[in-house]
Amino acid sequence: MKSLQKLLLLIVLLGVNRPLRAQSYYTPPFDFDRSMDKAYVDSLLRTTRIRLAGLDRMRPTATVDTARMEYLHFMAYVHYSGMSHRDSSLLVANQLIQLAERKKNIKYQIKGLLLTERYYRDFKVNYPQAIKLNYRLLALIETTPTTYAMYFWRIYRNLGHISSAIGEYSDAVTYLQKSISWFNKDKKIDPIHLADLHRFLANAYIGQKQLNEAEAHYLLSWDFVNHLSKVSISNKAYLTNDIGQLYNLQEKFTQAVPFLKQSIAYWGQLNAPFPQADALADLAVSYLGLKQYEAAIASAREALAKNQKVPAPMLTAYSVLISAYEHRQDWKNAFEYQRLFNAKKGEEQQAINQTESLRSKAKFEREQLEIAHRQERLLQNQRYQMLAKQAEIDRLNNTFRTNELQRLAQTRDLKYRLESQQLRTVATQKQAAQQATIKQLKINQLHAGLAAQKQLRNLLLIGIGIISSLGLLLLYYNLRIRQTNLALRAKNREIEMALIKGQTIERKRVATELHDRVSSLLGATKMTFQTMDAEILSPRNKKLYENSLNLLNDAVTQVRQLSHNLIPEQLLQQDLLVSLKTLVKKLNLTEQTVFSLSSEPSGKLPLTQEAKFNLYVICLELCTNVLRHAQASQAHIKLIWHDNWLALQVIDNGVGMKTGRESGMGLDNIRKRAETIGARFRLESDPYDGTKASILLPLSSDKAFN
């Protein structure tokens, strides 16, 4: 009966331990392309919990402990990579570290600390804590560097990430180059990580403005990816987006477009709208550089539709839309996206100000940890030297005992003991000196920390005092400048009104002189010509007579038009639109070019006398240029009025302008006249499409309001 019970117990024990041996604590590889698939992530976590629960029923052994640590590591990894359980990854990683410390298992301590460091670096953006964990990892690995050297590349990679994030790009390049040189020590690692390291190094070179070096490492990473059989789509998506951004920085827009389109397609497969919006914004930049404005607008709008949270791609999309709409003369949309850009830029600046203190703290923390790490290595070397000397003493002791047993030489025994005693004394003195050195180093470190804190506090107090003083001075001078500006603005208004009044009086005088004197003189000349009997003239003289009479008629008509156009009564008494209608009627009397006028919307424009006068004169000058130079059959004057801006355009279908004519005296006068009322002048000319002249006047300006 007892034999039967023992047999059953043995079968039960074998049955309990069999699953562990069969599965050998195997964990499946995590598919990053399914990281957003909650069902997939939860199934991995559920299966791992079941295996952990099974270990609780087994007899504790070294194999069971290793299996438990491997499952905890896998759970923490899945929690973080699955994106929806990242706080749980920190909890499980801490459990792994505590278990590994109890079992004195350095390998899983390192794995747990790497997961914890990644949590603080990438998710919590707590760079000081991440730096501490990396130096803790370095100290742990250096206890047995020959065994765990394969982990050095990960630590240098992490420090490179942090250096790039805090703007220390030179340090980032150094760390990442070290990481690449250590990479081949880890024989089991996936080669895709080497492609990622070259991509990270390229990003650091971009931070240093070394774009050619960055391009070389991006293309090297792309070559690695294309030669690997199994590469996640997310890796390809990040890399193609980065390469497209680099080509945009180099203004190689044609080369950027195919890479960015690939990135958009990859993110579409992964159903990841935020990174896809980033790639779409970069693609819009490429289209803008290629002057494909419709495609640029479509890509930028699609980027905004997919992302209304992350500021950087939103600012890129807004910038593209502003430039594209300005080239299309769509001022309404250009002004609207400029307003959105300014608002979002302000939000981003606030976020930058909030993180700047964290970056400064991370830099200070890294410097302190580097000093402590160097001191610890020095102390460690001193300990090794002390242990080596102690080993030499022990060797001499063993030699002495052997010689004593073999030779029984009392003289040598006495001499050796004296030498041993001297060596022990010297070793004891050196050990005491080393301990004193260690204490002094610690004291110096504490003094340095206190001095740094005191200096930082004093600098902060001085800075606060200086800033407060400057603030008060700026406030005082701001009030003084504001009062002065108000007085100057009033004086300028008086001068401007006097100038307009003087211009108006002078124009009336010139118009009167033209009408009363020149027009009368031409009329008298015409009447004198008409008294001549043309019938008695020879055919040639008769033809000259008729041509002269026609020229006099044209001169009389043009002088009359010029006298009326110099200062129309409607411009001083009525709206600009009414004056322009009268101008169009007079221009059409020449029967050379057909002028037309439209207004969107119609109604009285909120303009000052100065703005009204200058806009009329500019329009008159532009129409005169059309009659003189354009050889146009049609010309159109267009007024576009929005809530806060007014656009005046003169468009003709003539021969355009020759190269070099854009900076003539007449156009310079128009630009200066536009600037006096706060407006912008833009001229576009094409030999096949004629000429378009545009005046854009913001109505928010003080010069434009009534």
From TrEMBL:
SUPFAM superfamilies: ATPase domain of HSP90 chaperone/DNA topoisomerase II/histidine kinase, TPR-like. Keywords: Kinase, Membrane, Transferase, Transmembrane, Transmembrane helix, Two-component regulatory system. GO terms for cellular component: membrane. Pfam families: HATPase_c (PF02518), HisKA_3 (PF07730), TPR_10 (PF13374), TPR_8 (PF13181). InterPro entries: HATPase_C_sf (IPR036890), HATPase_dom (IPR003594), Sensor_HK_TwoCompSys (IPR050482), Sig_transdc_His_kin_sub3_dim/P (IPR011712), TPR-like_helical_dom_sf (IPR011990), TPR_rpt (IPR019734). This is Histidine kinase/HSP90-like ATPase domain-containing protein. GO terms for molecular function: phosphorelay sensor kinase activity; protein dimerization activity. It comes from Larkinella terrae. Residues 610-701 form the Histidine kinase/HSP90-like ATPase domain. The chain crosses the membrane at residues 459-479. It comes from the Bacteria. PANTHER family: NITRATE/NITRITE SENSOR PROTEIN NARX-RELATED.
